[in-house]
């Protein structure tokens, strides 16, 4: 790929599990869920039948 094309694509997307989100933010599970409900935090995305990121 050319340097210009790499810049347009940006970094690859990475989904975090709830435990990693909690560790990085220092927030509790209930606070994260409350913020999601209020639109202050990104909504979880279903990645599989029993997997959410």
The helix content, as a percent range, equals 40-55%
Distance between the termini: 29 Å
Structural class, by secondary structure, is mainly alpha
Spell out the helices and strands N to C: HHH
At a glance:
This protein is mostly helical and 53 residues long. It has helices at 3-9, 18-25, 29-38.
Description:
The chain has 53 residues and is mainly α. The protein has a domain at 15-47. Helix content is 47%, strand content 0%. The relative contact order is 0.14. The mean pLDDT is 88.
Walk me through the topology.
Blueprint lengths: L2 H7 L8 H8 L3 H10 L15
Please give a handful of descriptors for the protein shown.
single chain; 53 residues; mainly alpha; 3 helices
């Amino acid at each position: 790929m050319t340097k210009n094309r790499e810049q347009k694509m940006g970094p690859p997307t990475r989904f975090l599990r709830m435990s990693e989100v909690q560790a990085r933010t220092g927030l509790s599970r209930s606070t994260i869920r409350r913020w999601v409900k209020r639109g202050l935090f990104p909504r979880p995305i279903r990645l599989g039948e029993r997997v959410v990121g």
